[in-house]
Amino acid sequence: MDKRLKLIVIGLVILAAISLLVAFQLQTTLSKVKAAAEEEIRSLQRENENLTLSFSKLNQQYKALEDDFNSKRQKLEGIEQEFKLLSEKYDAVTKDRDSLVNKVQMLVEEKRKIKEDFDKQAKRVEELEKKKEEEKKEGTGFAAAYTISPEQESQWAEIVREKAALKFELESIQAQLKEMTYKVDELTREKNALEMELKGLVQAKDDLERKASYNEKLADSLAQDLVREKNDKEIIISQLDKLKQDNIQMRGRIKDLEETKTTLYKKLDNLEQERNILQEKLKNADSLLQERVNEIVKIKNEFDALKERQGSGKVIEGSRTVELSPIVVQGKQEPTPVTLTLTGRVLSINKDYNFVVIDLGTNAGVKVNDEFVVYRDNKFIAHLKVVQTREEISAADIKDQAAQEQIREGDIVKKM
Hints:
The chain is an alpha+beta fold.
């Protein structure tokens, strides 16, 4: 009966220890999981904030680039319109120059013709004067023999009139030629001015073409930058969506962990209640065990007194001699006087949690942190250290153990 009680007590102690260890491990694991989840959530929140800031900065840069591109495009359109106007003006100036060149050529040709006519008239006048001089010479030498007829006088009058007309025509031609010369000089100056303006327009056209080419290249570069920015923006948006999905999944995991935490807390409360129940049962078992030990001690004392009376040879009249079978008490340590070496035995072994239960308790003077040595046939087996005590039993951790040796129930333990 006492052995069964001891086994029950040992089982209760083991269950209580297992419950405490399981509860501690569950609580530790849950705390670690919760801390890891909270840290991961914080890191995701920080990463989300950083991505949001990066996205806003990129969006601002994109807007700035878009505004710059629009302004450049408007400027390029204005330059193209200006270039178109200058091209039209250049074409008009070219036409004017061609017409002026044609006009100058016509004037030069007209001047040449007038000069030829003038030369012819001048030559004709010279011939008439020479002829008149010759006739005068002939008239002075032969005045008496030669007389002027009316026909000759009319001819000479006609010659004089023709000479005056030719002179007047010559003067008008000279004036016209002078005017033509002025016009030619003016046209030449205008031609030079137009050529200079044409050169300036050509140079401006070249500058505008270079600017247009540069602006076109700049527009292409801005377009490529915008395409890259757009692609980067799409990548960032996809990453942000992925992070949001991961965040949603993480929140679901956290929710599951919270539910698991709640379940574990409930289990922990149940285990705590079971532990309290087991402690109450253990307390009741300790009191019951103490009562049984007191009864055994009382029976032993009565048995010792009976043996002393039988050994003294005194027989009470009317009494009969009764032989009692020997009473064997297993697993109990009787109160003994304090000796130099306290000896007991191993009652049970828990290999999973690496501790043993011995049959020595506070009644034998055992305290927490006391150390014991386990022997079998005077051979060292292990070294123990007490972690919990009761009145008749104690639990001790196995500190070290001999190689290729295992503690068994019934091994002898001695206090160091």
